[in-house]
């Protein structure tokens, strides 16, 4: 075989190998980019879930507190109980 033919054959093989390598690297980069986007989306979803959970807890906390706000003050309830137990009909109910 002539030397010139071997050199051109070697160059052609090298170019093909380089194309394969570049295609492989491009696929790896796309895959890595996809993974990073998925991770970022998961992080964003986690942040949104935290915000929703915090809002839900705040609403539940408001529900737990709100009945206490509408109860009469303790001194009013104590006065009512004193009247109930000081009257004979109130004591009679207990017996």
Protein architecture, described:
It is rod-shaped, with a radius of gyration of 40 Å. The chain is an all-alpha fold and 95 residues long. The protein has one domain. The protein has helices spanning 3-70, 74-86, 88-94. The longest helix is centred in the middle third of the chain and has 68 residues, at 3-70. It is 93% helix and 0% strand. α2 packs across α3. The mean pLDDT is 81.
Query: How would you state the average pLDDT, rounded?
Result: 81
End-to-end CA span: 123 Å
Overall number of strands: 0
Helix content: over 70%
Give the overall shape: rod-shaped
Strand-residue fraction?
under 5%
Counted up, domains total 1
Major sheet characteristics: none
Order of helices and strands: HHH
Radius of gyration: 40 Å
Parts with pLDDT < 50 across at least 5 consecutive residues: none
Per DSSP, the total helix count is 3
Structural class: mainly alpha
Summary, kept brief:
The protein is mainly α and 95 residues long. Helix content is 93%, strand content 0%.
Labels describing this entry:
rod-shaped; mainly alpha
What are the SSEs and their pairings?
Layout: H1 3-70, H2 74-86, H3 88-94
Helix pairs in contact: 2-3
């Amino acid at each position: 075989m002539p030397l010139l033919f071997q050199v051109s054959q070697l160059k052609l093989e090298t170019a093909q190998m380089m194309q394969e390598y570049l295609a492989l690297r491009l696929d790896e980069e796309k895959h890595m980019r996809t993974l990073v986007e998925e991770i970022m989306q998961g992080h964003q979803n986690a942040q949104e879930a935290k915000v929703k959970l915090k809002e839900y807890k705040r609403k539940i906390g408001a529900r737990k507190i709100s009945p206490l706000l509408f109860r009469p003050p303790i001194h009013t309830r104590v006065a009512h109980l004193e009247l109930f137990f000081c009257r004979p009909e109130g004591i009679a109910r207990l017996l």
